[in-house]
Amino acid sequence: MEQAIPVYILSGFLGSGKTTLLQRLLDHWKGQGLRPAVVMNELGEVNLDGLLVEQSVPMAELLGGCICCSIRGDLSTELATLIKKESPDVVVIEATGAANPLEIVDGVTETSLYLKVELKSLITVVDAGHLLELHRAQQGATYRLMQEQIRCASVLILNKLDRVTEEEKEEVLTVLRKWNAYAAVMPAVRCELDSDEVLNQAGGIRLEAEDLTDEAEGDDTSHEAETEGNHTAPGSTHALHDHVMAYTHYFKNTVNSEEFEQFVKDLPRDVYRAKGIVEFNDTSSRYLFQYAYREADYMKITPQGDVPNVAVFIGEHFSSGELRSKLLRLEKRLLARPNAVRRSL
Ligand SMILES: Nc1nc2c(ncn2[C@@H]2O[C@H](COP(=O)(O)OP(=O)(O)OP(=O)(O)O)[C@@H](O)[C@H]2O)c(=O)[nH]1
């Protein structure tokens, strides 16, 4: 009988390390002579993570929205099309960091109604330091969303341990255990783990709805979650990330590298993830830049094909107009002029 195609969902908050893990898993499968395929979802209009994945890997892209709401219906169709066209041995779905994983589970199970696919596990990558900070503050829709991503995981990768102390690691491990006592927890730096171990953990995906409302810790985030999104029913899981927004900026000019680095350092706290391809006027190469939880990273890159110079900013209620003005100023497309003139640009 025809074997079901295993499907893995990669979940985890923005910038936690999902693409880092994805690259490791793809290398692992290719090393075994298998043909993996990827469904990638990005909030921004360009698939920057896709540039980090070898071109030989078949990929379906869902851009400009989050799988779990605006383009939810597309997931099942894209997954089916990818499988029919590419006949992969295994499929990984990398959700946006703002996605509620249960909605993705829903999309996969829909596909399994008419194609032989088997959802193997839901792997959630956690940024140890970021979770700790939110847990200590005990509030915010981001905190609540992270909690959900952790709760329904069958495997938890406790990543970025290079950024926390041993005591903080123990503290965050206790939080994970409290929220999800069933999943295997795998501590890591840059998701450096034995891929077989990651893939073979059998935790089972937890779909119990009652687990999604936790009053036990006395946090008051459920109220916030309900009021953030006014077009969703109170308590609806979609409301958890309706507050998340993305701004995509296309560069027309090159920028100075030091000025750009300073701009990234000065990003408002409400911007918790940024990435892009930039071309500096004082260096010879193009760079892929990454910014996650106040840490920036620049990597020389030579993208294949026609890739624009672009930056995507993801966060909560930040002023995209302000970011745009600053970037235009870096590009010298917005020169200091009287306010009235500047507004009309
Ligand atoms: N310091 C540190 N940085 C890490 C670690 N793992 C990943 N990173 C960096 O964190 C940034 C984000 O990593 P990604 O793998 O792109 O994260 P992601 O979850 O795919 O991000 P989104 O798709 O935007 O949600 C990159 O600059 C990585 O190099 C880690 O363990 N420690």
Automatic annotation (TrEMBL):
The keyword Iron-sulfur does not apply. CDD domains: CobW-like (cd03112). One of its GO terms (cellular component) is cytoplasm. It holds the Pfam family cobW. Keywords: Chaperone, Hydrolase, Nucleotide-binding. Residues 220-229 have a biased composition (Basic and acidic residues). Residues 250-329 form the CobW C-terminal domain. InterPro entries: CobW-likC_sf (IPR036627), CobW-like_C (IPR011629), CobW/HypB/UreG_nucleotide-bd (IPR003495), P-loop_NTPase (IPR027417), Zinc-reg_GTPase_activator (IPR051316). Residues 209-237 are annotated as: Disordered. PANTHER family: COBW DOMAIN-CONTAINING PROTEIN, COBW-RELATED. This is GTP-binding protein. It comes from Paenibacillus agri.
